[in-house]
Amino acid sequence: ILVVINGPFLDDDNKAKYWALPLVLDYFSQADITIFTNGTNSEQISDLIPQWEDECERRQLTANVKKLKTPKGVTIITIQS
Question: What is the mean pLDDT of the chain?
Fold first, then answer.
């Protein structure tokens, strides 16, 4: 399953992007998932990736993170059940 996460932008009080991963995992935890998200060079988003890794670990799922060099930053996370 391919998931593309593109927005909304985050501010100090809005963690909308964080909840994308738990929601996807609630529905597709038995499938292999590839998550593609951009804008990961920003400080807020770069802090989000370790939180997503922790969520996967908590659910006993394996997450592999690959960061691609682009102007805004792209991160691809593959999650295996």
Answer: 86
What is the rounded CA–CA span in Å between residue 67 and residue 38?
10
Is residue 74 within 8 Å of residue 37, measured between CB atoms?
A: yes
Torsion of CA 6, 10, 13, 19, to 10 degrees: 30
Residue 51 Rama label (left phi>0; alpha psi -120 to 50; beta): alpha
Span 52-74, pLDDT tens digits? 999 999 999 999 999 999 888 88
> Quick one: which H or E segment has residue 44?
helix 43-58
Answering whether pTM is above 0.90, one says no
ω before 50 within 30° of 0 (cis)? no
CA-to-CA dists, residue 22 to 15, 17, 62, 68, angstroms:
12, 10, 14, 23
